[in-house]
Design goal:
The structure is a homodimer of 444-residue chains. Chain A is of the alpha/beta class. Chain A contains 14 helices and 20 strands. The N and C termini of chain A lie far apart (57 Å).
């Protein structure tokens, strides 16, 4: 059996894959399925020379490959002279970093789908690549197959991004869409998502906002030239949302979405991950199911949005193979590692804006005793903290889990988060408070 | 006054502008406004060396420029040794072609926003550029600032596009959005759009679908490797739409949008421009006002969408300057003209699929005599032509412009256009027909 190859062009460009899971199998399949088109566009063939895997004897794989290509020896793979590009699909942090840095040290160009690696060690990886004169491409790291990295790095190269709002975790978006459409609680929808393969058996990284925070760090790097401490990004999961919040979001004209938000403040960057109410008229409000989308607001272009499959074997593989083609195009022009396509030269560590300093609109839900004067107490405290109210609904239906009581729903005008939190602490300490207040930020 | 320059990097890359209208002024402004960021990303300065204009003494310009840069001599501008990149912003067909071909002959790289030039003469321009080893970039030619050209050429380089649905003419989309929201007839909305500057004083190219057809030809070139006869693309304008069609579109669950549709059939390409009903649940249905969007369906990625400002001084200038940066990046790596980023090598003339051969769903409106048996006659003729009906509404309100009569609204299942047209011809010839039937295609 011949090595996996794309097309029959004269020149061959050697590729090594590290990892043959879901995405790796997709890469092999796409290189085969679209071989002729890739060769026609590139004028060369992309040939897989080696695939490093943990267990070469594993029987069940998602794609058929020549067993002679499989190896457990990553270092030997990275030093092969017939390999031009190393495709890192190991995932995770430690092992991937060692492999990518070794690939760079061997003078190999790198394509990776690893957002965690870039969020934690982007500075070191890009510096090493620049010193060695090799390319590092990472389109698949954010929004899967939707080419948002290229859009930001090249399409908007002349522009200045002011802020971004993104749905970058498909699992969370699928779960929130189902919760809204079916009125089902989180735990039930999660179980269903796991059954359908939309959620991992350990869904923590997805539903806690951790995965989204890593992607947000990569986006802020590209948009604002800022290296953030990605582990310090404020994140709230979707697991504490209550079906009532979906119903009242709709009443107030909003849809709850798992958003990442980034905004440049010059000396600091605002970066946060939390379920957010977005106006129902926004395009982002219509991005449903497991889909991803990034809405970018920039100086010259204004608002623009990029939408599609943020995960899955073939969409992610598509981004990886497009990166391989990009490096191959550079190689064909003897320009690999030489094009200043990266904004990494201009990267600088930047502090995160403290959450108390952000400004937002807020949806607040108060479970209180059903007693005269309650609404007055709440609104007075909010007012004393400079939190001005846009809409309020008091619902005297029995608050689930409490024998008697009322629920007060408040939508505020824009306010400082520190002020809102201080007001909520005071309200929570009132004798009328039956449960801690719930806060959901509104993007508008 | 110093020449217009972006940033203070060491290396200077010389740019000549042909034309200083709306977009040209935006280019000058953006190079100034974002000078520092561009220099940081590129490691070089983009310097405007000359601007060719028709009337250098013109008093009123959208941007202030050094008068010494202005010239009427295009040929002298193109042969300047200190010009690396020529930016063609003349527009139109004949003069732009002469200028671009001369720039290429002088070994200059070209950035253009001219869809008409590429739709009519793309093959010749790209062949000349390839022979001479220079770059031709044209991001601003389609969807203004939304980087759809880059997305298709690079982001989806590994994928195979199956079909595209796009809103690529902002004027038409603005007019249809207003007609729907306010129930106002075409002529009134057009007058308002002209007053607001959303429509030209001669709006023919926009509202007739001509502008959209040129853009569709460029998209089909990129998506399907097909050079089409852009003047032969089927187009229908938005000027014949009736407010009733908007109301019934909504009843049937659709929104009327000015769509371009392209689909690869292997030996032929389906390409058409007409007002189209799209399902209200589609993201494209929510693209309102003067905005543009391209929805792409491809083999590996599935559905993806790209949305934003398709016209306007700064959005279009943003695309042009991002192209300048792209060429400059190639120049910095000594790779300009050498990267096989273009799919133009694989371009081939391809026939258009005849309109009679396309398959679609249809909305049909019949103005008929209000008489028993009318519905039966219509549905029988449709059935005899293999046109199967999904929904029908008979409205006996007085048909405007006729003394008495009824209107029959039909939504069909997918059918062959030739069969539908044959059925309509028969129905139009019936004694009960009070006016020619109206047909609007449905994308679904």
């Amino acid at each position: 059996m011949a090595p996996v190859a794309a097309g029959g062009g004269d020149r061959e460009i050697g590729v090594a894959l590290l990892g043959l899971g879901n995405v790796g199998a997709g890469v092999v399949k796409l290189l085969e399925d679209n071989a002729a088109a890739i060769r026609a566009r590139l004028g060369a063939r992309l040939v897989v020379r080696a695939i490093a895997v943990r267990a070469p004897d594993k029987k069940k794989r998602l794609v058929e490959v020549d067993r002679a290509l499989l190896t457990t020896d990553i270092e030997a793979t990275l030093s092969r002279p017939d390999v031009d590009i190393v495709c890192e699909l190991i995932g995770g942090d430690a092992e991937a970093k060692v492999a990518v840095e070794s690939a760079i040290a061997h003078g190999k160009h790198v394509v990776t789908a690893n957002k965690l690696l870039l969020a934690r060690h982007g500075t070191a990886v890009f510096a090493a690549a620049e010193d060695k004169g090799v390319d590092v491409y990472y389109e698949a790291a954010v929004c899967g197959g939707v080419p948002v990295i290229r859009v930001l790095r090249e399409g908007l190269a002349s522009d200045r991004v002011e802020n971004i709002h993104g749905i970058v975790n498909g699992t969370s978006n699928f779960i929130l869409t189902e919760m809204r459409d079916k009125g089902t609680p989180f735990a039930e929808v999660l179980a269903e998502a796991q059954r359908l393969g939309y959620a991992e058996s350990d869904p923590t990284l997805d539903v806690s906002g951790g995965d989204a925070a890593h992607k947000l760090a990569v986006l802020c790097m590209l948009c604002f030239g800022a290296m953030l401490d990605s582990d310090a990004i404020h994140k709230e999961g979707i697991d504490t949302l209550d079906p009532r919040d979906f119903a009242y979001a709709e009443k107030f004209g909003y849809v709850v979405k798992p958003l990442v938000i980034g905004r440049d403040h010059g000396r600091a960057v605002e970066a946060r991950v939390h379920p957010t109410m977005v106006p129902a008229r926004w395009l982002l409000a219509d991005v449903d199911g497991a889909k991803n989308a990034l809405y970018v607001t920039s100086y010259a272009l204004g608002g623009s949005m990029y939408y599609g499959a943020g995960a899955g074997m073939m969409p992610t593989a598509m981004a990886v193979v497009s990166d391989l083609i990009e490096v191959a195009r550079n190689l064909m022009a003897k320009a690999a590692g030489a094009r200043p396509t990266r904004r990494h030269r201009a990267l600088a560590p930047k502090p995160l804006l403290p959450m108390t300093e952000i400004r937002s609109r807020y949806y607040l839900r108060f479970s209180v005793a059903d007693r005269p004067g309650v609404l007055g107490q709440i609104t007075t405290i909010l007012g004393n903290h400079e939190v001005s109210i846009a809409q309020v609904i008091q619902d005297s239906e029995r608050d689930p889990g409490h024998d008697s009581g009322a629920t007060v729903f408040v939508v505020t005008h824009e306010a400082r988060e520190g002020d809102v939190q201080a007001a909520l602490a005071k309200i929570a300490a009132l004798p009328i408070a039956a449960a801690p207040p719930r806060l959901i930020r509104i993007a508008e």
